[in-house]
Amino acid sequence: MINGKCSKKYHRAFTSNTITGDDGYPRYRKRLTEDGGRDSATVHMQKGIMDVDNRWVIPYSLMLSKTFKTHINVEYCISVKLIKCICKYGNKGRDMAVFGVQPDVSDRNAVRVIDEISQWAGRYISSNEVAWRIFSFPMHERNPAVIHLSIHFENVQGVYFTDANVHQRAINPSGTTLTAFFTLCQEEAFIRTLLYSEVPSY
């Protein structure tokens, strides 16, 4: 329950036939009693008594329920999000189990060293991902491509530096997309007819 409502969107609306909803997901047939549906049942719960009808019945397969002697939720999956379930999650990390034996450390503030090489070597890669990597297919893409355009005042752009190049960066700071746009306007007459946000399209 979330804010007093079922997070799985139950109960569902009555419908005489199975139809496709506006979001692309099917709305399974849940008939009224007058339309051939089953009568409602009274369920005793910890918080009281509740009348349950077809709107509260989760989609199931009678054959699977009889075979495995349990309720199995069955729904038709049709979404681009389904690829995440087949090929794992792109940003969630891989299935793996890393364990080791370490001496008991009495000092709780002691720094624990994480062996990233062992974690990388011990990762699990599914057969789908293996084939995808063997053929060197792209792992991700953005369409349309997104380009971050910097916006800042004159001579106050962000500068990244280290102890070794701090003086060089202070004298000659690195350029940004905005400073490059101004430089391009000085060199190309056509660029001066474009807006800053239109330049990446050319």
Low-confidence stretches: none
Q: In percent, how much strand structure appears in the residues?
A: 5-15%
Give the overall average pLDDT.
77
**Global outline:** extended
The radius of gyration over CA amounts to 30 Å
State the helix count.
6
Portion of residues within helices: 10-25%
Strand order in the sheet with the most strands: 1-2
What is the tally of beta strands?
A: 4
**Most strands sheet:** 2 strands, antiparallel
End-to-end separation in angstroms reads 51 Å
Structural class: alpha+beta
What's the order of the H and E elements? Answer: EEEEHHHHHH
Provide a compact summary of the structure.
The chain is an alpha+beta fold. 21% of the residues lie in helices and 7% in strands. The strands form 2 sheets. It has a two-stranded antiparallel sheet with strand order 1-2. The chain has a two-stranded antiparallel ribbon with strand order 3-4.
Which keywords apply here?
7% strand; 202 residues; two-stranded antiparallel sheet; alpha+beta; extended; two-stranded antiparallel ribbon
Protein described:
The chain is α+β, with helices and mostly antiparallel strands. The protein has six helices and four strands. The strands form two sheets. It has a two-stranded antiparallel ribbon with strand order 1-2. A two-stranded antiparallel ribbon has the order 3-4. Strand 3 and strand 4 (48-52) form a beta hairpin. The relative contact order is 0.06.
